[in-house]
Amino acid sequence: MSKILFTAWKDKSQLLNVRSEFYPSASYEGPDLRSHACATVEAWKLRGNVPHHVEATALLTDAILHDDAQHNSIFSIRATYSAAFCRFVTGLVDSKIHGQRKTMFQRAVDLGLPASFVELRHEATHREPPSLVVLRKASQRSLEWLWDNYWAGVDELGDVPIAEHNDKSSIGSGLSEILQKFSAESDPPQKKRKRDHDDVVATQLVSTCTMSDEGMQLLAISFLEGSILIESERKLGDPLNNAFKNWDPVLLKITETNPSFFTHFTEELANKLAFEPGNVSSTNAYAEALYLWLNHLSTSPPWAIHQPYFSHSYVNTACEQSSTHWTKMLSKDLKKKGELKTKPNSTDVSSKKKALSKNSTEVEANTTRKLRARGWEPLEKWDSRPLGISSIN
Q: Looking at the record's lineage, which domain of life comes first (predicted)?
């Protein structure tokens, strides 16, 4: 017996029409129909059975349309973005909704959702709403994720073109080919040639990534395939100085043009270290190398400018979920780094207190001089009795 499937739309052509209104093709030059698409989804919700991906697309799009400072306050714009984004993420990763109890980070990993979305959702829910710049970028990335993971898979009826998104597997193959070629080459003899060569490789990788909305994530995964960053014959205790020297220029160049890559890269390193069964042993040379890469990215001076984008929350959570020798060491290192960053310097504090005290004394003396010049004198003893209370001798 065939299974009956109830949908909020009459037939698939209605869903495809709404998709084309949310995501018009590059050649479309007609009026903006996104508000009409949002109204259609709102009507569908009255019927029920609206997929979360469709509802989330409408909420995020409506938040973007609400982004008008001439008619709406900045606070209401931030609140609208935050509410739409939080509902989008929560509807996907909340374990209470999906049965099997998992952390939100685990659910995000299962769904291919960037872990930074879970972090931003936590910030928007429990702290101040993020800045407009962050919210706008997150909403745009969310709509791109929804296209790749829902709308692009809706079957065509013949007259609704799907946007030109390249096959992920072919993009991944192209990235791997570039990386394998670079890792197999010997370093050019001159520093200038080496720097130029690194720039060319980084440019090729970034250009390939732009073919997909998930390009940076695909690139991060490609770096960890095979023996690109970590030699397959590496032994426990072997230093990674040569690997850092060889790959840092390329990785830094990519991060400078695409800061999101650094977040994706650290998240993928943490996933490999924490969630691959083979990396549990304390004598595993590959796990040690992953630990050293994460430690290098979070502490080394060349990466200092990008370290604010390091996914501390995600990495710490991943380490807590999979307690091994290397994750414990990494958690300890990150905690120590955080303490050093927030711990005040006692000498600096003492000198600041002295400077403030000296400045306060000078101001008070100058004020007293000016008052005395005009016939005022300071009162030696202040009577703090309330009004209406006389003294009794």
A: Eukaryota
How many CA atoms lie within 13 Å of 43's alpha carbon, on the beta-carbon side? Answer: 11
Q: Are 188 and 246 in contact (CB under 8 A)?
A: no
- Domain segments of the chain as ranges: 12-153, 168-342
Sequence-distant (≥ 6) Cβ neighbours of residue 149 within 8 angstroms: 53, 111, 112
Of 14, 32, 12, which Cα lies nearest the Cα of 22?
A: 32
**Nearest Cα to Cα of residue 248 among 180, 308, 198:** 198
pLDDT in tens, 380-393: 665 666 655 555 54
Dist. CA 295–CA 331, nearest whole Å: 10
Measured between alpha carbons, how far is 131 from 334 in angstroms, rounded to an integer?
Answer: 26
What distance in Å separates the CA atoms of residue 104 and residue 288, rounded to the nearest whole number? 27
Dihedral class, residue 388 (left if φ above 0, else alpha if ψ from -120 to 50, else beta) = left
pTM higher than 0.85 for the full model?
no
- DSSP 8-state secondary structure symbol assigned to residue 345: P
Structure tokens at 279: 């990396």
How far apart are the C-alpha atoms of 379 and 182, rounded to whole Å? 81
Within 13 Å and on the Cβ side, how many CA atoms surround 380?
A: 0
In whole angstroms, what is the distance from residue 311 CA to residue 25 CA? 34
Query: Phi and psi dihedrals of 54, rounded to 5?
Result: -70, -45
CA distance linking residue 266 with residue 255, whole number of Å: 12
Write phi, then psi, for 378 (nearest 5 degrees): -70, 140
Are the CB atoms for 290 and 322 separated by under 8 Å?
no
- CA geometry: angle 171, 51, 34, nearest 5 deg: 75
* Cα distance between residue 281 and residue 324, in whole Å: 7
**CA–CA distance, 327 with 344 (Å, rounded to integer):** 28
- How would DSSP label each residue in 54-114? HHHHHHHHHHHHH--TTTS-HHHHHHHHHHHHHHHHHHHH-HHHHSS---HHHHHHHHT--
Task: Give the pLDDT confidence of 109-163 residue by residue, as tens digits.
Answer: 778 888 888 888 888 888 888 888 999 999 999 999 999 888 988 864 333 333 3
